[in-house]
Amino acid sequence: MAFRLHERTLEDSVLFLGKRLFQQCVVDMYSMIESQRLSWVRQNQAKIRSGSLLGLEEVVNRGDSDASFIGSRVGFPA
Questions:
Q1: CA distance 42 to 72
Q2: Are 42 and 74 in contact (CB under 8 A)?
Q3: Closest CA to 56 of 66, 46, 42
């Protein structure tokens, strides 16, 4: 996370008075951000280098693993 939330003793903050409601809002916002990041990764697979998946394909092609347990291929950026 790029920012950390903390309460300052010399300043009154209305947000922190919300207690659990504020915490739930922060968690919801963070999950929406992560969802957008994963969506970008899913939609931009052509831009992401997928050379690391070649090893996985080799293992499946040799028959060392059961391919029924493998879902769709998604490569994640470093």
A1: 10
A2: yes
A3: 66
